[in-house]
Each structure stands twice: as C-alpha cells, then as structure tokens.
Amino acid sequence: MDLDRYLAGIERELRWVRPDRPIDTVFFGGGTPGLLPAKDLVRLGEAVLKMAGQPPLEWTVEMAPSTVKPDKLKVLRDLGVNRISMGVQSFQESFLEGLGRLHRPNQIYQAYNWIREAGFENVNLDLMIALPGQSADDLKKDLEEACRLDPEHLSTYCLTFEEDTALWVKLSQGIIKQDIEKDADLYELTWEYLTNTDYEHYEISNFSKPGFACAHNLNTWKMKEWIGVGPSAASQYQNVRYSNQADLDGWLNHTETPAVERCEVQHLAEVDLLEDSVIFGLRTGQGVSMKDLNKRFSNLPSIYLWYFFKSLESDGLASIEGEDAVKLTLKGKLVADRIAVEFLELALSRITHRMCVNKE
Predict the structure, then answer these.
(1) What is the pLDDT of residues 122-158, one digit of tens each?
(2) Are residues 122 and 30 in the same domain?
(3) What is the CATH number of the domain that holds 24?
C-alpha cells in the first residue's frame, strides 16, 4: 500500500541524512501527520531517532483536532515529542463549515484536553483571521476562547485562496469578497488583543508566552540550515537550497541511494542569504540587527542597507533603535510583503553590485 511504501521511503532517505552537528529541532508537518495510526507514528519517530541519535530539544507534530487520539499522543510522548501544533482555525461551527474543515468545536475541546492529559506542556493553536463574513466581534470571540484554553503559543494566519478550491470558485464568482481594509483592521485587533494578554508578538503571524517561541521556525527565519525529508520537502544545507520531487513514485525511486534527486537546486551566494535574512528578519519582533549582519556577511553593503532602513523609518514603517536594531512598526507589519518587494526591487540591485565590486 502507498502508506507502507511512503514510510519505507522516509526510512531509507533518513539513512542518507548525515548532519554535521546535533539535530536541535524536528517538525512533522506540511501535511497531516496526525492521520497516521499510532503504530506508524512509532515507526516514523523511531526512524528519526535512529538518524538523530537522541530526541531533539524541540520536536513538534502537527495534528488536526479530528485526528488527535490518546493512543497517538502516548506514543508521541514516549518517542520524545514535546510540542503539539493543532489546527483549530475557528471555534465557531459556521466558519469551520465554510472552510470545509472536518472537525467541529466539541472535537477541539476534547482534543485539547487529551493533549494536556498526555503531559504536553508546549502547545500551539492555529487560528485563521479575515474569514469570509467574519466580523470583529466574531474574531474577538475566537481570540477570547483561544486565550481561555491558555496555550503556550498561538499562530494567526490570514485565509489565502488557493486556485481550484471551493473557496477560490466562490471568490471568482463574487459569492464571497475580500476587503483589504477590513482584513487590516482584523490583523490589528488580533495583535492588540494578544499582546495585551501577555503573549509576545515575536513574528508577524506568531505569538508565544515567554520561552515558548518556536525554535524550529526561528531557525528558518534566521536563514540557518534545515534538511527536509519526504516528497516536496525543502532543504537549505551547506549553502544549497533544494527540494525533493513532489511525485510519490518519483521520490521513492530515488530513495534507494544516497543521491536522492534534488529539484529546484539553488547554490546560495552571500547575497541570497543576505536578502532573505533582511526580509524574514524584519518580520520578527527582534527585527534586523546591523551588528549581526556585519558579523555574518563579510561584504555587507552597510550604506545601502542603512539608506533603505532610514527610508522605512521616514515613512513610519520602521523604527531604528540606536545605531543597530531595525524593527517594523504596526503600520510596517501591515505592509510587510510590500516592503519585501521594495527591498528586492529598489535595494537589492545596488547591494548585488556593491558585493560583486567588493569581491573583485
């Protein structure tokens, strides 16, 4: 069966993973790992432990409320998993139905209780905001209910409309509409509400209690290194960014040897890492540190970067603390994607030229 073939492929691919340092974090996600029966979660987890040698400091498994079961939670705890991320989306049945979700509010509460009873002390809940027909009062109810459950981490994402989905069809037919100004108001409501409830707004879409920021995501946002395993999995390792084949059979055919076929291979130059470090760094609560950038990048074009940051400050999109930390303001967070595009279009051409000149 495909599931057995998939797990066998994961086991084979993990045998070829030879990290040159300890594994700090593991994340089962990008899909629905919670759908696996308990015995298959054990098989998958044991393959990871064989590769890593010991449980990582942070080990997250994504689960939907309808897939959370006590037997699965027990085997995950026994393996060393210490963080559960549950896709709640909303606590209101009408919105769950509109999203086509399989779970209902009562399943959220039951799943959450089972997670806590199993001993997990680091739990994330995913919420969606700017849903079709969602008012500020509707969103506030979801935020209040999420905070009442008191998870260590909350992720809040704006609904995106993927092509060839039922929601996309409704949008294209005008049955539902997007209101950008209203969506911005809902973002602001979310950020204000959660920061006033003792959650740290440590990344545009993420909030945590002190000490519970997601280490796996922080590693990614800081443009460090990660190794993805499985079909479509993305990696950034030893200055190469690549992904695995999406096709299950194609991926399986290349797990028999260490030369797992890589797709979309990009050999990263210093400027590539600089680009992403600035774009993703600005999304975090810590912002971008010129001091850290200077340490990491030997040919940092400080003048051009500083000019870009000062232009953001003059537009009220960023604040500069002393001569180092650059952080987006609330206004800047609302247009973070636009800022990223501007950085690429206006600043990067100069930065690339300067770095090339410096290397000659």
Answers:
(1) 999 999 998 888 899 999 999 999 999 999 999 998 7
(2) yes
(3) 3.30.750.200
Task: Report d(CA 34, CA 60) in Å as an integer.
Answer: 11
- Which residues of the chain register pLDDT less than 70? 1, 31, 159-180, 259-260, 300-301, 323, 346-360
SS3 of the chain: helix, strand, coil, percent, to 5: 50, 20, 35
Nearest C-alpha neighbor of 335 from the set 356, 357, 317, 353: 317
Is residue 61 situated within a structural domain?
A: yes
β pairing state of 318-321 and 325-328? antiparallel
Q: Is 264 exposed, middle or buried (0-12, 13-18, 19+ CB in 10 A)?
A: exposed
pTM of the model: 0.88
Which residue range is the domain that position 255 belongs to?
Answer: 221-267
Contacts from 68-71 at CB under 8 Å and sequence distance 24+? 68/34, 68/110, 68/111, 68/114, 68/115, 69/38, 69/114, 70/114, 70/117, 70/118, 71/38
Instruction: From 213, 231, 252, give the residue that closes a domain.
Output: 213
Question: Residues in the chain, how many?
Answer: 360
